[in-house]
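Notes from hallway chat w/ T.B., transcribed later so I don't forget. T.B. wanted the structure written out for a chain they're using in a teaching module, and asked if we could keep both sequence and structure tokens in one place. Agreed to drop them here.
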Amino acid sequence: MKNDQTYTPLIITGMHRSNTSLVAKSLLSSGLHMGDNLLPASPHNKEGYFEDKTIIDIEDEWLKKSDQYWYISDFDQLKAIQPDKGQISSTRQKVLDAFDGKSFFGWKSPRSILFLDYWLKVFPEAKFFFIFRHPCLVSESLVKRGDMWKFSKLHPMQLKKALKICEVYNRAMLDFFENHEEISLIFESPVDIDNTSKQGRINEKLRNWGFMDGPVDFESNVNPKLLRSKAPGILSNLVYKSSCDRQIYDRLKKLSSDSLL
């Protein structure tokens, strides 16, 4: 396989519990090659994760070498994540082997948010599909899944930790998007799932990039029960208003509305 050939991955990413799996499922069912070694479904994600195990292993190794975990709650900690630049070529080859050397392919991984600049070095041709969700709904989902129990037994403190993690991921997304808007898409879930106009513009960009021949039907590829609208809980909303940078989420919403006009 020639490493000087052009390979273009679509990196689908966003904060954990932001419905990234639902978007990935829609893209997969519409023809995007996402690998043959996907993480199986679980009780926490019965529809499936649609994450390739090779990408998971690579990013987990990067986190381990940096003595970090996915639940980073301080933006400055991102600076400690420094994958070995000398491994760019070998990482690229490992990924190409996992995706059968196809010119256009994609993967979904929330952890990819932590390595955006590095993945762009590995694949300068890469495109990025960002998904975000209201931070309160994300934090409530993380707490419900039990991810925050290791930090505190107190529900308000669990929500605060989850919100801080979400803030780091959303800030990384925002910073990258504002510097690389020409190679990025941004999508709010579940708001944009049934937004026909937004879907049309996303489909057009995906076609122009070379990923899709036909349209991606997001709405019919998801379980409506998983996307039912609900307002953030009173407690999570209070914690959110008192402890997080709400301007990040507001800015993401504005970019989502404006980016494909």
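Follow-up for T.B.: The chain is about 45% helix and 10% strand. Might be a good example for the class.
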